[in-house]
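To whoever is on call:

I kicked off a structure prediction for a single chain this morning and the downstream step that reads the tokens threw a length-mismatch warning. I double-checked the sequence; it's 787 residues and nothing unusual in it as far as I can see. Pasting both halves so you can look.
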Amino acid sequence: MAPSMAPNMAVISPELVEQHGLTPEEYQRILTLLGREPNFTELGIFSVMWSEHCSYKSSRVHLKKLPTEGERVLQGPGENAGVVDLGHGWACVFKIESHNHPSFVEPFQGAATGVGGILRDIFTMGARPIAVMDSLRFGPITEPITEPITGLNAAAGAGNPSVDISMNRRILRGVVGGIAHYGNCFGVPTVGGEVMFEPCYQPNPLVNVFALGVARYQDIFYARASGPGNPVIYVGAKTGRDGIHGASLLASAEFSGADGQQKRPNVQVGDPFLEKLLLEACLEAMQSGAILGIQDMGAAGLTCSSCEMGSRGGVGIEIEMDLVPQRETAMTPYEILLSESQERMLLVAQRGHEQEVFTTFAKWGLDAVEIGQVIPESVLRVRQGGEIIAEIPNRALADEAPVYERPWAPRPRTVPLECPVELGARSGEDLARDLLHLLSEPNIASKRWIYEQYDTMVRTNTVIGPGGDAALIRLKETGQALAISVSGNGRYCFLDPRRGARLAVAESARNVSASGATPIGATNCLNFGNPEKPTVLWQFVEAVEGMSEACEALQIPITGGNVSFYNETEGRPIYPTPVVGVVGLLETVEHHATIGWRQPGRSIIVLGGVLSGQENPLPPFGASQYAQTVLGALWGIPPWVDLGYEARVQACCRKLIAEGLIRSAHDVSDGGLGVSLAESCIRENMGAKIELNLTEDPRLLLFAEDPSRIVVTAEETGLARVDRIISEYNIRAGVIGRTGGATLDVSWQGERLFQITVAQLRSSYESALPEAVEALTTPGANPSRSN
């Protein structure tokens, strides 16, 4: 039956189709699927469900290359979140999502609702959230100390605007404030993450949020409708006009300079206290046995949850607009269906048990209203006043959206392959200044100013919080622990997306292994520019294939994630930035390592070797933080990671921790060995004496970012056993010094290079970020909550 046109009198013109983000070809496809012209409401439904954000139409063919199965995987991609088996009757539910464009338009609410959305993805599966992490990217917040020599300007893209430090600080403050507000009020610890600063993120910051929860196997719920005649129940907050077209117009299109203000109405507004009530009510109602299926009303709101639940269950859903709780007057069906108001869920209950659901939600002071029912026809049917105003087959919305195999082509190099600067000899005094300079660089400096705004200990499960390689969360129910890390390096991926993605997986897994945990699953957030540009899609394809290679080699399945395209403003894309979140399992929580030196007099060992031994180390050195910060140059390619060797180094580290032979472990990454040693000194306020005896340039020894390296410490009495285990795994390793004292004392080939007090290291490391962020911005600026 064709729906009534009375509430949908707008003429469907080519201009209206374009305003909805649909191409003429896509509109023709809609006509074919429906066998008629859609009305205005139906056009809006198609626009959100066929948006890049909801349909993955440019990425789906490539995402199939990722490994998604493993012996612990209970649920892979396709649901609200992935699920892995922890044993003992328990499961872990986790996912990472982006909220990039909303966080540029309105930093506070954009970031806050990003946290709220990912938390709902977790508890809609029946799991209680126990940890949050975030991966953030902003434009520069300090003036560069070194004048750029070459490469950096080209890296940012032609016509890159001048750096607006004031704006970048404002966005940083707003985003951090939003994350803190939502997570702290909801009552979930923010236990770690990463923050990076590059010019390309100035007009397009990245806000990726990871969340993790736990549940018993039998308590896992899925977003599937079933049983014709069963009631469809709306629960949570009332529907408003905030967030309309957030998926189709905010997350699935490039920005222009004016979009920051024009698109503010597309940003959702969150209420973390209400979401806390929603969590408790949902988990309680799930235990009653009355609920058969449940889904968050996230991107595309009521439209997405209803048609996807129906499609997964092979049934349909019929809903009545007049019954939907509304907080604003005279809302149209179009607005109700496309609203992305927060803190709302849609559930299907067992007929005859709906009163149990109503009673539970009334107890928590929340709306719970039957707005429709499951129907045998596999359609989304929308009524108003009893009259059908929209009716679309579920498959047309959820399964038959266009899937594009867009053309791709390699991006021409805009930076040199060979080192463009003269690397003259550096004295020990020079190298000491270089190390202090790196420690004060915002990409490396302590993020304490940020994470001290977060509640990191609520629920008292946090064993290792922010500032380490990986967070460690205690599972009180089983005595186990979960290690979590998120990692990515856009600069690496700009130079070579395949290598960069392999390194992102390797580093995130290495962080988890350095805590003692075994990686068991991963999730990804793939942040890229406009996929309709062949060079951008080439970056995406290369990154996905590199990620697949690394996950296969390290035996870490991808259980789900998010693709965020169109991260560019006025034609300037961000660096390709795949972010990888890895979850690891530690069977006994006490058997873990931390990054700080635990005791004086312990031998310092580099598992994996001080350097990789490659014939020409200069091209990879051009991707390092040292090259960018100290030399003001960018060139070459990222380091190459031998994945088989990487796996052995990580396994060796885990074995040494499990055997009780090492208690501190810290991976070598941004800033190289020098920064890793300094961070370990700072962590427990203990120095070290280091002897580097290789013939390579000490600058490379200290600051190259070769992968597959972990700095560990062991008692001298245990070195023989340590050596035996290292031999079992056939990896390079060497003792480079001992812990103790109040200085980091570094020698090369028998001669002292420098001696820096731990207090000096700490001062550079701890003071840089707060000094940068809290510096005065534009005189007379009017502070607001989003500042």
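Update from on-call: the warning came from a stale cache, not from the record. Cleared it. Sanity check on the structure: DSSP finds 28 helices and 28 strands in the chain.
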